[in-house]
Amino acid sequence: MNYRLFFILLFLCSSILYPQTNSDPRMIGLTGAYTTLASGYQSVGVNPANLSVYQDNSMNIFNIALGFNSNSLSISNYNALSGSNLEDSTSINYYPKSDFINSFNNRGIRFMHHYKIPIPFINLSLKNFAITTNLNNNIDFGLPDGLLRLLFYGNTIGSDINIEMEQFISNTQDFGVSYSYLFDNISFGFSFKYLLGLFYMGMESIGDPGIKTEITGFSGQNKYLIQQAIGGGGLGLDIGMSTTMPNNGYRFGISIVNLLGTIEWSQEHFMRSQLENSI
Predict the structure, then answer these.
(1) Contacts for 162 with CB less than 8 Å, ≥ 6 apart
(2) Residue 231 burial (CB < 10 Å; 0-12/13-18/19+)?
(3) 19 with 28: CB under 8 angstroms?
(4) Any idea which of 12-26, 149-163, 196-210, 215-229 has the lowest mean pLDDT?
(5) Residue 81, helix vs strand vs coil
(6) Which residues contact 130 (CB under 8 A, 6 or more apart)?
(7) How far apart are CA 247 and CA 252, in angstroms?
(8) DSSP three-state, residue 148
(9) What is the DSSP letter of 10?
(10) Residue 38 and residue 46: Cα distance in Å, rounded?
């Protein structure tokens, strides 16, 4: 076995998968407290002012950042439900259903999946200048609050079950140019981004959808709007500030990411005209 090749592949793949969409594992380890520590091209999307603080030359070879989270999956919910009795209020392990359902803040159960793929060799920094481009995917889906209550309480006579739904999936790509300049001990930086919308599909409720249980049966009138779009564009801006010299052992930084960033989906977009005949 070629051990040299093995260790090279291990080094290149050591940052392929993270359980969150942050591109640097140090950011995960610090739970996001990373504003003054990000360096090189990884400071783009965090604090572009750090480009002139560290002035690193860096390049991304390959990595993928994956993330999955939910408003229902947590240690506190697991500990509360594990071994609990949801029916008998006299039980020592009794846990009220209402406490569990109310923890979702009337949003039902939501699941969010996302990934970020920095394009190899195009994400790079040269001292206080950087160019970046990333593929992004976001999925948000779940079970409505009304159906969640139906599972726990059943359909009692005369009750209204709200089945308002909101689901969406989007694929985008961002292209960024970043620059930072050092003034004495304070650095200021910005990232100017073009946001390319690749695909969007979403479903949302119209009005106040619901089902009412009556003696004779069920009644309800529900309407949902499903939208799909191919091709869109928009602009975004990141701005940041960071100090260079430690003040009593502390450095300070602040940044605003995706300031006024929006994507307008349009039928006149060049991507739609190129792809509409094949879809």
Answers:
(1) 144, 145, 146, 208, 209, 210
(2) buried
(3) yes
(4) 12-26
(5) helix
(6) 40, 41, 43, 44, 48, 51, 124, 176, 177, 178, 179, 191
(7) 9
(8) helix
(9) H
(10) 7
* CA 173 to each of CA 12, 35, 252, 264: distance values in angstroms, whole numbers, following the listed order: 23, 23, 31, 14
Under a CB-based contact definition with an 8 Å cutoff, are residues 234 and 269 in contact? no
Q: What's the rounded Cα separation, in Å, for the pair 57 and 68?
A: 32
Per the CB < 8 A criterion, the answer to whether 198 and 162 are in contact is no
Beta bridge partners of 129: 126, 179
pLDDT of residue 135: 92
pTM of the model: 0.74
Q: Among the residues of the chain, which ranges form H helices?
A: 3-13, 25-29, 50-54, 75-81, 97-102, 145-153, 270-275
Q: Which of 146, 116, 145, 150 is nearest to 133 (CA)?
A: 116
C-alpha dihedral (258, 264, 269, 270), degrees to nearest 10: 10
Token pair of 53, please? 């603080």
Q: Is 87 left (phi over 0), alpha (psi -120 to 50) or beta?
A: alpha
Determine how β-strand 109-118 pairs with β-strand 57-59.
unpaired
Amino acid at 72: S
Nearest to 116 by CA among 75, 159, 172: 172
Give the dihedral sign, CA 273/275/277/279: negative
Mean pLDDT of 6-29: 49
Does residue 203 contact residue 165 with C-beta atoms inside 8 Å? yes
DSSP type of residue 261: -
* Residue that is written with structure tokens 């140019």 in the block: 177
